[in-house]
């Protein structure tokens, strides 16, 4: 079930956290107030994790997209890895041929970004690129898969349009 409410919107039940705080942008009547709109609010990462999910850091091989990402964005995570095929010879006395080729696959088609690493934020502010680490929200099983994938693959982010379900239905 997709929600039209932004993931970083402050729920009405927690509105007392921001009453009296100064906003860093004008907020129109009936618009959502986001945590990032209010200065001086203590933002705890644990409060941003959805029920039944874990916050997991992921480091990407190519961090060039990181400066354009913000908490609340949705990304796909792609992995590039080496595939090894062993082709046996008809003559059993000969060694088989080993064919290696790189393959890329979508590991997770839709992942919510919880946070961009603090080091990345500082480096971006100073004109640097950051180290490519972000924090995402995943189910425990997906989190374990991501940790294993980071050890065996080169990972790349792909920015998605928020709530775009078409990309999830594609079969190619």
Sum up the structure in keywords.
five-stranded antiparallel beta sheet, 172 residues, single chain, 31% strand
Q: In this structure, how is the largest beta sheet organized?
A: 5 strands, antiparallel
Task: Give the count of helical stretches.
Answer: 4
How does the helix and strand content classify structurally? alpha+beta
**In angstroms, what separates the terminal alpha carbons?**
23 Å
Radius of gyration: 21 Å
> Uncertain spans, ≥5 residues at pLDDT below 50?
119-126
Using the alpha-carbon principal axes, give the shape. Answer: elongated
* Overall strand count: 5
Quaternary structure of the protein: single chain
The strand line-up of the biggest sheet is 1-4-3-2-5
Strand residues, percent: 25-35%
Succession of helices and strands: HEEEHEHEH
Range of helix content:
10-25%
Mean pLDDT: 79
Descriptive overview:
The chain has 172 residues and is an alpha+beta fold. It has helices at 45-48, 118-125, 140-152, 166-169, and strands at residues 54-59, 74-87, 97-116, 133-138, 154-160. A five-stranded antiparallel beta sheet has the order 1-4-3-2-5. The relative contact order is 0.21.
